[in-house]
Amino acid sequence: MTRHSTDTPQFYLTAPSPCPYLEGRHERKVFTHLVGPHAPALNDILSQGGFRRSQNIAYRPACENCRACVSVRIVVDRFDWTKSFKREMRRCSDIVGDVLPASPSSEQYNLFRRYLDDRHAHGGMSDMTVLDYAMMVEDTHVDTMVIEYRKKGPDTFITGRGEGPLLGVALTDRLSDGLSMVYSFYDPEIEGISPGTFMILDHVERARALGLPYVYLGYWVNGSQKMAYKARFRPQQHLGARGWREPGEDEE
Predict the structure, then answer these.
(1) What is the pLDDT of residues 159-213, one digit of tens each?
(2) What are the φ and ψ backbone dihedral angles of 200, each rounded to 5 degrees?
(3) How far is the C-alpha of 217 from the C-alpha of 71, rounded, in Å?
(4) CB-side neighbour CA atoms (13 Å) of 206
(5) What's the CA gap between 62 and 72, in Å, rounded?
(6) I need a surface site. Which of 76, 103, 185, 204 has the fewest CB within 10 A?
(7) Relative orientation angle of helices 195-210 and 83-91, to the nearest 10 degrees
(8) Binning pLDDT at 50, 70 and 90, where does residue 1 land?
(9) Which ranges of the chain would DSSP assign to H, the alpha helix?
């Protein structure tokens, strides 16, 4: 595959393929490569323009007759800590996230496979091998981190790290204006807590601590139950024809 300078990125359009979110529809994507020393700056610009990253590719939907996919980001400094969210944080108060370089491990992959087999057995990622997973994590030219979530242990107060089995993982990019949650997964057998919700709330707190105004959640897809959960995290901005605006905001 030819790699092009990020000073003048070249964009490509995929052929139509079945939409993974809306039955009976087809999707197309426009994409470019994120490589070289300018990749972080390009990733910033494209993320703010509604693109998502997958390995060293930045992409966004380019469907001819559908605009159901909407880029979503949480507004950190005005985040609405509902009673439900506060309860979830209390339930997860014994869990700590450890920030690591973007490096895969067999423990991560084993959890990743359990998550896919339980929650997305027929999804597009269901046949990913250990090599595919390693590429997903480490094939990056931008500022990427892995956050491993584990229970707090006797030494956590000293080390700041959790102990015991891996409960969840978030692959996250740091942008100039926020944290972008590229992909996250967790132990599907955990009971009593909602680890997916907790990881998003944890990213809100991390962004706040870093002085970053947004947490990017990727695409909310109107009509897709898989993506309905993203609407819970408010206030949030959606990217439309007139830029990033909160739903219902007067655009006149």
Answers:
(1) 889 999 999 999 999 999 999 999 999 999 999 999 999 999 999 999 999 999 9
(2) -65, -45
(3) 8
(4) 23
(5) 17
(6) 103
(7) 100
(8) very low
(9) 39-48, 83-91, 106-119, 130-138, 156-159, 195-210
Residue keyed to tokens 């999804």: 123
The predicted-structure confidence for 29-47, as pLDDT tens digits, reads as follows 999 999 999 999 999 999 9
Looking at beta carbons, which pairs linking 187-196 to residues 24 or more positions away fall under 8 Å?
187/111, 187/114, 187/115, 188/114, 188/115, 188/118, 188/119, 189/114, 189/118, 192/91, 193/88, 193/91, 193/92, 193/95, 194/88, 195/92, 195/149, 195/167, 195/168, 196/229
Average pLDDT, the chain: 93
Say whether 55 sits in a helix, a strand or coil.
coil
CA 160 to chain centre: 24
Q: In which residue are the tokens 């980001």 written?
A: 73
161-191 CB burial, b ≥16 within 10 A, e <16: bbeeebbbbbbbbbbeebbbbbbbbbbeeee
SS (H, E, C) 76-87: HHHCCCCHHHHH
Tokens 């995929």 belong to: 14
Give the whole-angstrom CA distance, residue 84 versus residue 17. Answer: 38
Q: What angle in degrees, to the nearest 10, is found between the helix axes of 130-138 and 106-119? A: 110
The residue among 200, 194, 203 whose CA lies nearest residue 87 is 194
pLDDT at 141 over 70: yes
How many residues can be counted in the chain?
252
Instruction: Please name every residue paired with 75 in a beta bridge, in sequence order, or none if there are none.
Output: 214
